[in-house]
User: Fold this.
Amino acid sequence: MPPLPLSPPSYLALPEDRALSPYTGLTRAHWEAAADSLLAAVAPYATADGALYHLPADRTSWSGRLSDGLEGYARTLLLAAFRGDEKVLERYADGLAAGTDGVWPRVRDRGQPLVEAASVALALRLTRPLLWDRLDDAVRQRAAGWLGGALTAEPWPCNWELFPVTVGGFLAEIGHEPEASRAAVDRGLDRIEQWYLGDGWYSDGPGRAFDYYNGWAMHLYPVLHARLAGDERLLGLYGGRLSRHLEDYARLFGADGAPVHQGRSLTYRFATAAPLWLGALTGRTPLAPGETRRLASGALRHFLDRGAVDGRGLLTLGWHGPDESVLQGYSGPASPYWASKGFLGLLLPSDHEVWTAREEPGPTDRADAVTPVGPPNWLLQTTASDGLVRLHNHGSEDVRWDPFYTRLAYSTVTRPSAPTRDADSTAGGVPTGDDAPTADGVPTADGAPAGNGAPTRGSAPGEDGVPDEHSASRDNSVIVGGDPSRTRIEPLGVGDGWAASRHSNGDGVRVTSLVLAHGAVEVRAHLVAGAAPGTPVRVTGWPHGPAARSELRSLHGLSEGTGVAGADATLFVALARLTAEPEPRPLAELVSVTVEGAYDVRVSWASGPSARFRFSAVDGGSTEPSWSVAPL
Assistant:
């Protein structure tokens, strides 16, 4: 299908208000106009009975067309619930009556209808006086019966555990199978406790998968349930976690509103605004009202101004415009409407201070910062001069969705270069539902050699005199013997201006990595152990793009980003920078790096303190020692 012309965002018909919103120009009226436009655009694609929304696309998800149609109904119903328009809700009432009368697939173990049942239940709970209470009793009985399948359906062990919680909370409220409903709530909330790692951060299931599901799922559902149930104990628990999470989360947005391009389901776009609004809705937030709106409106505007909506007014499958590289096998035509969660702020009345306060600067607007984030072992590096955010990843891993978890770094203005395998492939060839792990475990990361990509338009020469051409093929990686994979990531610590980790590649080579950051400059040091002497090693930096300049300067053990492994563990050090400043100072003027002995690295910043780190062997309980790195 040829791309449709872009549709000008509907809110542009409204004048900007730069007095109230100096950063984005958007007000509540703009949010309402955007919601109304999105809801109007999907209406023509509803079936005659309103039960399914078959949005046009060149693909179906691996759950099939019927499930995709249910997804279209459920996710846009959630948008309608946040908007609270009675006329629109009447349309969805008709669809509910028809859908639960044999049209919708049943809610079963680990099936996509379980996901959509949660959206339906949450929407019904939020709009009970406007929708549920006006339904005929027979329709209510059928709907409760259909939703009731979620009480016993087994979810995938991840954020899916919260779908029965959300359904159970609504069914308990209306008195449907109260014991089973409460049991489903308690069971799901109990299960997610094992993934809470402190300081406001959850892993999305077993392992170390950190991404936007923290905000738009792991925090969203428990906090909303606690608020709607009037449970102050739970609200204190989950609201406190949310507030702490938002301290870090607010730093993931660039000055242009872009979220860091990391993690799966990126086609949900401005669903990233949901936890920001949730903090304001519950009063569990460290952010001022004007800062909350600045960040949320920035995200909305970023996407709607950059082609997220096509000529029909529909959200496309992609990031800005259509883009298959950010899709997964569970992505269907209506999947982007998970972005409906971003409109949660409309639950707040028009006179709430989050709508009436003047916009205030977000973290990236205020000052340069290098912020350690403990549980995921991330280092967030922001620069106010160009509004960029860089995420140094030394603790998140989910090789099923490479390249969105295993790279050394991500940013708000770059996207990771894609691996050679199909973005829609599954780990074991077993399709699973949205947001779910695959059934057969995880695959090995892409082990195909990354070719030497030619310099791309917009790339800048590094200080070795050549563009950082390697990163055009496999960015932010250590490629040993042609193998760029990064698996079994072990966090080694994160602190003031630094983060470190250890990982393996497909051949069992161990790489211990350290990054130090100040301003826009990065020092990257990698110790390669277990490779045969003479094995080529390549260190790559940021991918190229039109929005920023990427540089990589070889310092120790490298020439133009390439070196060779020695007989012993071998240290490689480089400087990297991603900046949108038009005339940045030369890297050599900003930092001095020396390697002392074989494995000590001393870093002296021109406008900051010095630091010294040591790579050292530790007893790994095997014939080959492990390596670690720590500050001295």
